[in-house]
Amino acid sequence: MFSRWVYLCSGPILFLALLITPALAATYIISPSGTGDFPTIQAGVDGAASGDTILLIDGIFTGSGNRDINFYGKDLILSSQSGQPENCILDCENSGRAFLFESGETSLTVLEGLTIKSGYTLEYGGGIYCEYSSPSIANCVFLDNHAAYAGGGLCCLYYVESMVTDCIFKDNVSDNSIGQEDRIPGNSTINTGLNRREITGAAW
Questions:
Q1: pTM
Q2: How far is 204 from 62, CA to CA, in rounded Å?
Q3: What distance in Å separates the CA atoms of residue 78 and residue 74, rounded to the nearest whole number?
């Protein structure tokens, strides 16, 4: 009698266990050619869930879906597969920013090992703009980005606590910047870390 009772109850118990088991984080691969798990970076972000990782194969990412990328509040890791920013480039072609964080992204949202090049905006943050969001940015290069207002390469405004680590800012331009506080104010942190931080040109 006892063994039969266990048999009858094991079904619903197993079903309940499956319902409450957390999903495993996934890793996706995206190529500049549009092959891989998704055709563009934005498509990968849209298809991924918080906790997932998106790896970019070395090359130059251009065009719609590979600029003005919005994470919409997801905690994702977006990184070059090689870890070499000079080999994995997001070229915005002066047609928009690379990334826009405005949905409360946390430090669990990570950008790593990327070059962000030729971003352009008539507003703030030519390469990346953060508003009410605090992503972590590491081992990235900001090159030749332009903002009409503050933050040629990067601008973080309004209750931001971003951590920017081991990044290079080179030849970024902002027309109206008058001080660092215009670009990375509040509690954001610039960490020299491995002493790879380098700032040249007009503005961050």
A1: 0.79
A2: 22
A3: 11
